[in-house]
Design a protein that fits this description.
The chain is mostly helical and 490 residues long. It has helices at residues 10-22, 27-38, 42-50, 54-65, 77-85, 96-106, 116-121, 124-131, 142-146, 154-173, 179-195, 201-219, 225-248, 252-269, 272-288, 292-303, 311-325, 329-344, 360-373, 377-392, 399-415, 419-430, 439-449, 459-474, 477-483. The chain folds into three domains: 10-164, no CATH class; 179-358, Tetratricopeptide repeat domain (Serine Threonine Protein Phosphatase 5, Tetratricopeptide repeat, Alpha Horseshoe), CATH 1.25.40.10; 376-481. Residues 1-5 and 134-149 have low confidence and may be disordered.
Length: 490
Amino acid sequence: MNAPSKPGSKADRDLLRQDMTATGCTLADIAIEMRSRFRMRPREAWRHAHGWTLQQAADRITHASTTRPGEAVAADASLVGKWEKWPGPSSRRPSLPVLFAMAEAFTCGVADLLDLDDRRGLPEADLHLLIHRPPTAEPPTAASFIVSPPEPTGTDLVRFAADESATWAQWAEASNVGDIALEQLMAETRTLASDYLTSDPVPLFVRTRALRDRVFALLEGHQYPRQSADLYVAAGYLCGLLAWMSSDLGQLRDADTQGRTAWLCAELAGHNDLRAWVLSTRSKVAFWDGRLREAINFARHGATYQTKGSVAVLLSCQEADAWSELGAQDEALAALARVEEARAAMTGEDEIGGIFSCQPARQENYAAAAQLRVGRPAEALRSADKALTLLAAQPVRAYGTEAQIHISQAAAHLATGEAEGAIEALAPVLALPPDHRLAPVTRRLGELCAGIGRPFTSGTSAVGLRQAIEEFCVDSAPRHLALSPGEGSA
């Protein structure tokens, strides 16, 4: 049985508008009824009286403003929603040009769009223009408000100018975020980046997206420039984290989009560590998308920034990874040598940590994979064994990294004809729960399948392991995401 819709739902609004229109009520009558019945702000009531969505209202407001030179308004759905809520929380005060454009779009007077709370919240200069407008037989326009009132003179002129400066100073001094709130946002970002190493990706994606939206909403408001920079840093790391998650879930195009937005945030913040981490993320996405030259270029670009933590280590690892995939042995080994140099040159701790950190175990994981691709299975096995030893000593063991280390172990054993060693190495990987079977793991297992067969003395062993890998890859997080119903499904 369907639950009844709450009062003020779209169905209620549509029914009220239809009933009132059928009985000959005017738009003003409908707006007044919307306000009283559903407790709406005046501007929202007028929009619903027309039956418009936020975007439809934004389009009409923008068009209405173009008829007045110097008063053009660039409205969108988000801005209209904030103008409607003002002077409540998470709102934005509509300027006089905005109010005039709204009045023209809604075919009403500016006074119809304001209640007592609005008037109390308006700057004195704006109220002066509204109160002292001349009477006119035609519906008021922006010009009738701004041009017609007589300019103040004498002491009124001086006082009026002072009021305008005071109004601007109040705006400039205000901030919608404090230092403690910024510290909390960064702390929550660190928690998400750390939790991603051990948690199911989809629920964590939801949490990360929600925090990103909070940061975006704050950036749409007003704060001091240094606070804006800090918010851009948080937004950049969160978009970078969403890019990493999207890639691990097999959604490479969406990961690229998140990476571009993260880069914009890094540039706006002027933050070198964030720039480098974003380029590392973009290198990772390009690698798994088969754009190996781009992956190398992103990694090299990131290495040009002066950074404090371990990002330079990861960038050199990623460059080696891409070169090895291209079969360029000399370049891959040279990049692996730079990994050690980058580790020795570190001057500080990682700002975020978690997925935005390259611990020695992660470094050895990259080394093992690169050594395998350039035909050095013995060195790869040593790196994989060392990685597992290092990982066991860490307080947090990243299941994705651990799985890839075991796959490198298995591949090294296969390359040296040790079938039993490969089966033993893959056992913990194949035991991963489906929600932890990320795209890099399934991709690497798929590549491993091509090498199964020759080292096995028993064909049954080869077939059984290949079948287990295929079943693993089908029952994976990217597969579940791809098969899940979208928003448009019934």
